[in-house]
Amino acid sequence: MAIKRKHNDGMDHKMLYSVLDEDARFDFVESYKMLRTNLEFVAAADKCKMVEIVSSVPDEGKSNVIVNLAYTIAKSGKKVCVVDCDLRKPCMYRYFKVSHKCKGLTNVLAGQVDLDSTLITDNGVSVLLSGDCPPNPSEILSSNGMKNIIRELNEKFDFVLFDTPPITIVTDAIVLGKLIDGAIIVVRYNYSDMKIVRDAKKYLEAGNIKIFGTVISNYTKKYSSYKKNYYYSYYTSQTNDNDGES
Question: Residue 95's domain spans which residues?
Fold first, then answer.
């Protein structure tokens, strides 16, 4: 399944790109391979494989980064799962082209279905959708039932990537981060307010959540005079695309 479709939010990006597209740019695909490699080094050094991908505000490309990173991990033969923990405004069903009515995380927590029956597989990636929207997302994400699901996912997969709401809007990412290994922050180039990004970092640190690094999204060659299209410092990588959001 290739994810390549029009974005209708009026922003300056026109398309969302996937590493599965036959015409995906070489530097775009290589950036995600670098991101995967960095994550593998972190996992090996710190024994961490349960990671939430977060952003400070909406529209920073966080969910698209998660999906492309998951596909890239799966291509290396690793077992990877994407969990949609945005219980307020879920979007993973769109990326994987399934109905928003599919059972998911909240239905497992409510005892309506078991975990295995809700997992969807696409191009080597397992996906746990959000399920029915609950009235109390933060409480659900901090529940004993959620801890049990995380424990089960930890046993089944090499990597688990969690999608969450923006940090500065609700506390869900902080609540979830306390139960897993750490977080990666997505920052959209030439868009994110650095003060708000610093606030998001402070919120994670205040919650004693380990920050593995930052991914710069929506970065293109035209923004840099460097020959390489990405860089990293411990765990910082840029995902690149000329026209679309990463």
Answer: 26-240
Q: Are strands 125-128 and 120-122 parallel, antiparallel or unpaired?
A: antiparallel
Contacts of 201 (CB under 8 A, 6+ apart): 185, 211
Number of domains comprising the chain: 1
Whole-structure pTM value:
0.84
CA distance between the termini of the chain:
17
Q: What pLDDT is stored for residue 192 in this prediction?
A: 85
What is the chain's length?
A: 246
In the structure, how many helices (H) and strands (E) does the chain have?
9, 8
CA 82 – CA 219 distance, rounded (Å): 24
The set of long-range contacts for 153-157, using a CB threshold of 8 Å and a minimum separation of 24, is 153/50, 153/81, 153/83, 153/115, 153/128, 154/49, 154/50, 156/79, 156/81, 157/49, 157/79, 157/80, 157/81, 157/126
Domain membership of residue 235 (yes or no) is yes
Write down the pLDDT at residue 16.
66
- Residue 18 in any domain: the answer is no
According to the model, what pLDDT value does residue 222 have?
Answer: 54
pLDDT at 238: 46
Does the pLDDT of residue 149 top 60, yes or no?
Answer: yes
CA distance 144 to 141: 9
Does residue 161 lie within any of the structural domains? yes
Average pLDDT over residues 182-190: 94
Query: Tell me, what's the pLDDT at 43?
Result: 86
Count other Cβ atoms within 10 Å, centred on residue 165: 23
Residue 195 included in any domain? yes
- State the chain's mean pLDDT as an integer: 85
